Amino acid sequence: MHRRQLGRRLRNARTAARLSLVDAAAAVSRSTSTLSRIESGDVPTRGPEVRLLCEVYEVDPAMTAALVALASETSARGWWHSYGDVIPAWFNVFLGMEETASEFRQYEAELVPGLFQTEAYARAVIATSDPDVGDDEIDHRVRVRRSRQVVVTREAARPTFRVVLNEAVIRRPVGGPHVMRAQCLRLAELSELPHIDLRVVPFSAGQHPGMNTAAFVVLRFPDHGGNRLTDPPTVYVEGYSGALYLDQEHEVARYDQAFDRIVTAAGDPNGDKSREILWRAAQEALA
């Protein structure tokens, strides 16, 4: 996350200075491929190198100090790196964003969001998505998911969540009736928390925008103000073998608009009807 943030700022500074990647790399005695990887956030870089780049780009002293300070954090490793054997590289980026986001706007069409899953539900999802893995690896992956869930209940810098689920998410019996009952009850409990706005788009709503967008998350990050750096809003769209990260203003705006329309389709401004649907689904799971 810090590498992406630093790289984007350096790229913007280079562009503002009207320097090509080739010219900038030559000015700091780096290869163009290395500088490109720094700008894309693929590799860490050190403070002295960042300071030199800032001098070449004629960045003002205050922003230079902020970028040099940020460089010291680009080598830091998140908790998830200890699970590198079960986390694909493309998901590492999202985990870093998830750790630092201040707001989640999420629509899910098929599955309960990972941050809201019970252990039994998560185990069933993982076992079904990859039936060839053994119990030990399933346990390992479940631990990763549980570690991620700290962000939902932590006291410091706790983000807000606006989550909309298609009713199919809570009606499809993942893991069996007892697992689904516990999962629906968990969702109902979470919906009572002041920082979580959880709604269900009922089948009775008919066709709605979420049928065209598929699942997505819009993440926003703290506005630190001053010379502390802030990451732009980013849309995360996960596929079967990879993910899209969209941070252009027009892209984020389109997904924000889609999310607002999905919320409108769900209705239920206070979440009371959605909680009723969740409680009813929990009761009917064992029927």
Q: What are the SSEs and their pairings?
A:
Blueprint: H1 2-16, H2 21-27, H3 32-40, H4 47-57, H5 61-71, H6 89-100, E1 103-108, H7 119-129, H8 135-148, H9 150-153, E2 160-166, H10 167-171, H11 177-190, E3 196-201, H12 210-213, E4 216-220, E5 234-238, E6 243-246, H13 249-266, H14 272-285
Parallel strand pairs: 1-2, 2-3
Antiparallel strand pairs: 1-4, 4-5, 5-6
Describe this structure in words.
- With 287 residues, this protein is α/β, with parallel strands linked by helices.
- It folds into 2 domains: 70 residues, Orthogonal Bundle (434 Repressor (Amino-terminal Domain)), CATH 1.10.260; 207 residues, 2-Layer Sandwich (Endonuclease, Chain A), CATH 3.30.870.
- It has a 6-stranded mixed beta sheet with strand order 3-2-1-4-5-6, with helices on both faces.
- A hairpin with a 4-residue loop joins strand 5 and strand 6.
- Helix 4 runs antiparallel to helix 5 and helix 7 packs across helix 8.
- It is elongated.
- About 3% of the residues have low confidence.
> What is the domain total for the residues?
2
| Helix-strand topology string | HHHHHHEHHHEHHEHEEEHH
| CATH class assignment of the largest domain | Alpha Beta
- Annotated CATH architecture of the largest domain: 2-Layer Sandwich
Q: In total, how many beta strands?
A: 6
Q: Distance between termini?
A: 46 Å
Percent of sequence in beta strands? 5-15%
Largest sheet: 6 strands, mixed
**Tell me, what's the shape?**
elongated
Average predicted confidence as pLDDT: 86
Roughly what percent helix?
A: 40-55%
